[in-house]
């Protein structure tokens, strides 16, 4: 580990240590264009002064690059990946570690926040990125900064707040696949210097990009989202401010195209994920809902900040949030009436944090606080299948009870049932219905403290602790809604006796961080940190053997080491950052397919990750700004006896990832300015499953995007864009639920999108 850190850090620091000579001739009054302020350490700081690997994407860059979703932002942040099968089913990945479980009793690994309120629960974590100040991505364990869910990092979405000067903006656009885009905000005072408002909203609609050959279904992978936010700012005095923020978002896209390569769709005969798909929905569960998603997310946040004195401030963050989602999908990926699954998920939470910050301008500053978190959730997974099709197509996978030979039954087509091994069960139901329900409840209380000491004028040391205690309950219910299946003798989910079963436990733990920053020069800072992160213990029941009760998976622990440099060079025109890291994971919580073909949590042993990241933002001139990033991450399971994935690469984690973008000022026509924003993002091969199969992977690929913007002096603006300019074919996921039945499915990435928008600022 020491050799790795030494060699990579030498490369990381070479440019930043040598570069100050380039900046010596810059005048002190020259504009530092790359200065970015972040609040990741619970106080406003220059990004260069934070001894943590943080990437910040501000509102200007979000607009210029057309970044509307987490998955868009992630392409420009090294070490950060986001996979969105649908708004209901995302996977967040930081430095090789994925957080995507939809089960209500399993904690996320990555903390997602919206104005300091956790939105980490998977089915409610995707929010539209509109009318923002910035998005901050902190990499590495952040126990004292982001709390119990930040095993491997945290993401904070910071929304724009009301202002006491009247302003606004409205945008409308159209594009291919019948895209409709509306966006805007308005803000201003209600009572001068005391009460202000802000209202913002966005609507995005686009037809699906995978054609459905089934006339009963819409084209798949569409977009249908509307979001609105209303907020008030109340400043009864110069030292006291409250912000009340209410958000509502609704998503109702068409079904996700889980496409099989095992069975060719009729009539196209193509198994390529981006070619037309023939999926199927049938059965009577959930009121006969078609394939697709219905999801709504509601939240109310109250922020309070009181500057008690010149050295002490108090902060309060109160949050209430709830989500409801219903998604129906075809997990086998072809048109025959085989398997149809649904997911009816809901969650409700309340959180409260109080924090006191101290900064008297001396050598010591920091904060101390406490928080309370209360959450309840449920995931109801209804399942329906045609017993005749299951016996015919999956007879070799499911082991049915004894049955008479197929040739002893009149009217049976031997060709159709040859995959059943020569047997068929009678009578077979055209529709079998069952459901699997897991529920969870958590009450957590935490106390935390973090302090920074200026040992010298150039050396700072930081340390933090967080103590967590949590009461957790996990429940399981399996129901056969129209009797046992003749194929399995029960169901695909084995039914526990006595209805719902549950178990409650209390857990506690201590996490910490230590960091150092050394100001090598006035423009170059070196940093090092060590942190311990924790994913709480999991109370889990195996659906394959629920009578055995619940098992407890040990807490997942990560020890993380990192060194790096941050610099602001050439009079502030060049921001250059680089770091190297090494992580050790214990009790890595993963999943595997059990004997019944069901996904269940397991302890997969240990894992390690080592890597290097670099970012640059360079204003070469008034006419050209270059933004670049590169990330290397070697994340593997340890190859130890009994490890189910020993030596394998962690899923959703490419070894290499890079991005390059430019903001090019083309001309000033006297009535406005014309600019060009091209970008290119690339990643190496990625596996979608911990088993590291080439079938369930995506080879390296790159995407080219292009924006052209005309900003007029009268406040109007016109923009034209093309995403995936070269029409690259790629997949964003493979395997999925169908993989458990031996029929993996594949989801196509987005094709070429183009459109135009007009904007008016006032």
From TrEMBL:
<dbReference type="InterPro" id="IPR012910">
    <property type="entry name" value="Plug_dom"/>
</dbReference>
<keyword id="KW-0813">Transport</keyword>
<keyword id="KW-0406">Ion transport</keyword>
<dbReference type="InterPro" id="IPR039426">
    <property type="entry name" value="TonB-dep_rcpt-like"/>
</dbReference>
<protein>
    <submittedName>
        <fullName>TonB-dependent receptor</fullName>
    </submittedName>
</protein>
<comment type="similarity">
    <text>Belongs to the TonB-dependent receptor family.</text>
</comment>
<keyword id="KW-0408">Iron</keyword>
<feature type="signal peptide">
    <location>
        <begin position="1"/>
        <end position="23"/>
    </location>
</feature>
<keyword id="KW-1134">Transmembrane beta strand</keyword>
<keyword id="KW-0998">Cell outer membrane</keyword>
<keyword id="KW-0812">Transmembrane</keyword>
<dbReference type="GO" id="GO:0009279">
    <property type="term" value="C:cell outer membrane"/>
</dbReference>
<keyword id="KW-0472">Membrane</keyword>
<feature type="domain" description="TonB-dependent receptor plug">
    <location>
        <begin position="47"/>
        <end position="153"/>
    </location>
</feature>
<dbReference type="InterPro" id="IPR036942">
    <property type="entry name" value="Beta-barrel_TonB_sf"/>
</dbReference>
<keyword id="KW-0675">Receptor</keyword>
<keyword id="KW-0798">TonB box</keyword>
<dbReference type="GO" id="GO:0006826">
    <property type="term" value="P:iron ion transport"/>
</dbReference>
<dbReference type="Pfam" id="PF07715">
    <property type="entry name" value="Plug"/>
</dbReference>
<dbReference type="Pfam" id="PF00593">
    <property type="entry name" value="TonB_dep_Rec_b-barrel"/>
</dbReference>
<feature type="domain" description="TonB-dependent receptor-like beta-barrel">
    <location>
        <begin position="267"/>
        <end position="725"/>
    </location>
</feature>
<keyword id="KW-0732">Signal</keyword>
<keyword id="KW-0410">Iron transport</keyword>
<dbReference type="InterPro" id="IPR000531">
    <property type="entry name" value="Beta-barrel_TonB"/>
</dbReference>
């Amino acid at each position: 580990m020491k050799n790795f850190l030494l060699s990579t850090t030498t490369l990381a620091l070479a440019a930043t240590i040598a570069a100050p000579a380039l900046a010596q001739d810059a005048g002190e009054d020259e504009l530092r264009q790359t200065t970015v302020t972040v609040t990741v350490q619970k106080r406003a700081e220059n990004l260069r002064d934070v001894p943590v690997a943080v990437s910040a994407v501000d509102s200007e860059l979000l607009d210029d690059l057309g970044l509307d979703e987490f998955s868009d932002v992630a392409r420009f942040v090294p070490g950060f990946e986001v996979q969105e099968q649908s708004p209901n089913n995302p996977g967040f990945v930081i430095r090789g570690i994925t957080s995507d479980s939809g089960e209500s009793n399993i904690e996320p690994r990555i903390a997602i926040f919206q104005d300091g309120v956790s939105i980490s629960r998977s089915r409610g974590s995707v929010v539209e990125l509109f009318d923002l100040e910035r998005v901050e991505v902190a990499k590495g364990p952040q126990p004292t900064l982001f709390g119990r869910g930040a095993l491997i990092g945290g993401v904070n979405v910071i929304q724009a707040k009301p202002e006491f000067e009247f302003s606004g903006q409205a945008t409308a656009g159209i594009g291919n696949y019948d895209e409709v885009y509306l966006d805007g905000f308005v803000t201003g005072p209600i009572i001068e210097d005391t009460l202000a408002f802000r209202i913002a909203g966005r609507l995005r609609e686009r037809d699906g990009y995978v054609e459905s050959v089934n006339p009963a279904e819409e084209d798949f992978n569409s977009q249908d989202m509307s979001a609105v936010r209303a907020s008030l700012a109340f400043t009864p005095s110069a030292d006291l401010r409250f912000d009340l923020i209410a958000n509502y978002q609704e998503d109702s896209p068409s079904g996700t195209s889980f496409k099989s390569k095992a069975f060719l769709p009729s009539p196209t005969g193509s198994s390529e994920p981006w070619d037309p798909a023939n999926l199927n929905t049938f059965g009577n569960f959930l009121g006969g809902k078609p394939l697709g998603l219905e999801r709504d997310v509601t939240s109310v946040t109250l922020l309070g900040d009181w500057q008690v004195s010149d050295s002490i401030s108090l902060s309060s963050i109160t949050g209430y949030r709830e989500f409801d989602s219903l998604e129906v999908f075809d997990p086998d990926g072809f048109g025959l009436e085989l398997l149809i699954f649904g997911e009816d998920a809901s969650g409700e939470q309340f959180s409260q944090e109080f924090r006191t910050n101290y900064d008297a301008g001396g050598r010591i500053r920091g904060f101390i606080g406490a928080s309370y978190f209360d959450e309840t959730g449920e995931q109801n997974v209804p399942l329906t299948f045609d017993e005749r099709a299951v016996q015919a197509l999956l007879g070799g996978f499911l082991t049915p009870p004894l049955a008479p030979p197929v040739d002893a039954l009149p009217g049976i087509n031997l060709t159709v049932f040859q995959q059943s091994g020569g047997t068929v069960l009678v009578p077979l139901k055209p529709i079998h219905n069952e459901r699997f329900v897991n529920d969870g409840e958590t009450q957590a209380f935490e106390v935390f403290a973090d302090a920074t000491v200026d040992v010298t004028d150039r050396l700072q040391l930081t340390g933090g602790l967080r103590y967590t205690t949590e009461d957790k309950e996990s429940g399981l219910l399996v129901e056969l809604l129209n009797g046992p299946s003749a194929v399995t003798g029960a169901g695909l989910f084995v039914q526990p006796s006595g209805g719902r079963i549950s178990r409650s436990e209390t857990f506690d733990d201590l996490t910490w961080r230590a960091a150092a920053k050394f100001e090598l020069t006035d423009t170059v800072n070196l940093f090092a940190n060590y942190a311990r992160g924790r994913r709480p213990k999991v109370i889990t029941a195996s659906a394959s053997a629920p009578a055995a009760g619940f098992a407890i998976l040990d807490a997942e622990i990560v020890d993380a080491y990192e060194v790096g440099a941050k610099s602001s060079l050439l009079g502030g025109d060049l921001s250059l950052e680089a770091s190297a890291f090494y992580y050790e994971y214990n009790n890595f919580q993963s999943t595997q397919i059990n004997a019944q073909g069901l996904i269940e949590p397991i302890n997969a042993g240990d894992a390690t990750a080592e890597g290097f990241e670099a970012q640059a933002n360079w204003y070469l001139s008034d006419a050209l700004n270059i933004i670049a990033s590169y990330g290397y991450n070697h994340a593997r399971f340890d190859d130890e006896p009994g490890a189910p994935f020993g030596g394998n690469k962690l899923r959703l984690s490419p070894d290499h990832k890079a991005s390059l973008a430019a903001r090019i000022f083309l001309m000033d026509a006297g009535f406005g300015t014309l600019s060009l924003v091209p970008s290119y993002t690339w990643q190496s091969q990625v596996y979608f499953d911990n088993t590291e199969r080439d079938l369930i992977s995506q080879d390296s690929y790159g995407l080219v995007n292009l924006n052209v913007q005309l900003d007029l002096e009268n406040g109007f603006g016109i923009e034209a864009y093309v995403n995936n300019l070269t029409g690259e074919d790629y997949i964003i996921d493979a395997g999925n639920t169908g993989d458990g039945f031996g029929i993996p499915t594949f989801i196509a990435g987005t094709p070429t999108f183009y459109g135009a928008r007009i904007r008016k600022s006032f």
